[in-house]
Automatic annotation (TrEMBL):
Pfam families: GDP_Man_Dehyd
The protein, known as: GDP-mannose 4,6-dehydratase
Residue ranges of coiled coil: none
InterPro entries per record: NAD(P)-bd_dom (IPR016040), NAD(P)-bd_dom_sf (IPR036291)
Domain NAD(P)-binding, chain residue ranges per copy: 5-305
C-alpha cells in the first residue's frame, strides 16, 4: 500500500485532500500540523512539524518513509505577505527548501508535489491570457515571489538530483471552511452576519475590478491526486478553472443570494499596494496529462460557502 504524507494538513486544503484520498485512494495517510494547531482525523496519523526545523523534517521522513508527499504548508495569504514579508519568505522559501533537502537525503525517491500559485505569473500581458506554464513570471507581490522561488528551486532539485518533484500553480480555490482573510469566505461571512443581525447592512470590500480564476477546493484536491499519480517529474502544472471572473461579479453572486438590502462600501485598508488586474489559467496541460475536468460550478461553490457561514453563525 502506498503511503501519502501531507505537510501542512491542518489548513484549508488539507482537510479536503485527506477526505478525497480516504474516499478514492487505497493509501495510508500521515499528516503534519503546526504544534499549536488542533486536528482530529480518524484513520490518519498526525505529527507535529514546523518546516523551519530541518532536522525534524529529516526525522519524520525517515520514520514515515512516504511514497507521496503533498507539500501544502505555507504562509498562504497575499494580503498577509504585504504585512509580514519576512515570515512569508521564511516559510515559503526556506521551509520548502528544507523539505526538498530532507527528501534529497533519503535513500529512496518519493514523489513530491509542491503547491505554488497562479499569482507567480503576476503582471500578465493581454496577449498572454490565459496564461500557460512556460509564460514569463512577473510576480506582483511578496507571496507571489516566494512561490515563484519555490517553483524554481523545485525544478532545480528535480533536474540536478534526479528527484521526483512536480510543481503546481494553483489559482484561487475556495469553498466552505476557508479562512475569511480570502475574498469569497470574507464576503459570505459578512453577508451571513448581516442576515443574522450581527452587523449593519454594509459589506466592506477591497478592489472589485481584479479578475481571478476561481475553482472549488474539492475539484482542486482531485487535480492534486491525479497529478501525483500521472504527472511528470520536473514539470509545472496550472490548476484552475480556465475562466477569470471579476471580483465585482463574485460579490453580486453572493449578494443576489441574500434577501437583505446590503450596501457596498470600499474599505481603504482592504486595497493592496499592487493588485494585478487579471490572472487566468490555461489548463490544457493538466487536462492532457490527467483527463481532469472541473465538476463543481462557481455558483454551487458560492452557495455552499454562504450556507456554511449561515450555519456556522448559528453554532
Ligand atoms: O500558519 P498556521 O498555524 O495556520 O499553519 C499553516 C501551515 N504552516 C506551517 N506548517 C509547517 N511549518 C511552518 N513553518 C508553517 N507555517 C504555516 O501550513 C496551515 O496549517 C498550513 C497552510 O494552510 P492554509 O494557510 O490554510 O493554506 P491552504 O489554503 O490550505 O493552501 C495550501 C497551499 C499553500 O501552499 C498555499 O500557498 C497554496 O496552497 O495556495
Ligand atoms: N481578501 C480580500 N478581501 N480580497 C479582496 C477583497 C476583500 O475584501 N476585496 C477585493 N479583493 C480582491 C483582492 O484584491 C484580490 O484581487 C482578489 O480579491 C482575491 O483575493 P484573495 O481571496 O485574498 O486571494 P488572492 O488572490 O490574494 O490569493 C489566493 O489565491 C492564490 C492563487 O491565485 C490565495 O488562495 C493564495 O494562497 C493562492 O495562491
Amino acid at each position: 500500500m502506498k503511503r501519502a504524507l501531507i505537510i501542512g494538513a491542518a489548513g484549508f486544503v488539507g482537510s479536503y485532500l485527506i477526505d478525497h484520498i480516504q474516499k478514492h485512494c487505497v493509501w495510508s495517510i500521515v499528516v503534519t500540523k503546526m504544534p499549536q494547531e488542533t486536528m482530529e482525523c480518524p484513520g490518519v496519523d498526525i505529527c507535529d512539524l514546523d518546516i523551519l526545523a530541518p532536522e525534524a523534517i529529516e526525522r519524520l521522513l525517515e520514520e514515515q518513509r512516504p511514497d507521496y508527499i503533498f507539500h501544502l504548508a505555507a504562509q498562504s495569504s497575499v494580503a498577509v505577505s504585504w504585512k509580514n514579508p519576512g515570515l512569508t519568505v521564511d516559510v515559503n522559501v526556506k521551509g520548502s527548501l528544507n523539505v526538498l533537502d530532507a527528501v534529497r537525503k533519503l535513500d529512496y525517491k518519493p514523489r513530491v508535489l509542491l503547491i505554488g500559485s497562479g499569482e507567480e505569473y503576476g503582471h500578465v500581458r493581454e496577449n498572454e491570457v490565459p496564461v500557460q506554464e512556460d509564460n514569463v513570471l512577473r510576480p506582483g507581490n511578496i507571496y507571489a515571489a516566494t512561490k515563484a522561488c519555490q517553483n524554481m528551486i523545485g525544478a532545480i532539485y528535480a533536474q540536478a538530483y534526479g528527484m521526483d518533484v512536480m510543481m503546481v500553480r494553483a489559482f484561487n480555490h475556495v469553498g466552505p471552511n476557508q479562512s475569511p482573510i480570502f475574498v469569497v469566505a470574507d464576503f459570505c461571512k459578512q453577508t451571513a452576519e448581516i442576515e443574522a443581525g450581527l452587523k449593519e447592512p454594509v459589506i466592506k470590500v477591497g478592489n472589485l475590478s481584479a479578475r481571478r480564476d476561481f475553482s472549488d477546493v474539492r475539484d482542486v484536491v482531485r487535480a492534486y491526486v491525479e497529478l501525483m499519480e500521472k504527472g511528470k517529474a520536473g514539470e509545472t502544472y496550472n490548476v484552475g478553472s480556465g475562466n477569470a471572473v471579476e471580483i465585482r461579479k463574485i460579490l453580486d453572486m453572493i449578494l443576489c443570494r441574500s434577501k437583505k438590502e446590503i450596501r457596498v462600501e470600499v474599505e481603504p485598508s482592504r486595497m493592496r499596494p499592487v493588485d494585478v488586474p487579471v490572472i487566468e489559467a490555461d489548463i490544457s496541460k493538466l487536462k492532457t496529462c490527467t483527463g481532469w475536468e472541473q465538476k463543481i460550478t462557481l455558483e454551487e461553490t458560492i452557495q455552499d460557502t454562504l450556507e456554511y457561514w449561515r450555519q456556522k453563525l448559528k453554532e
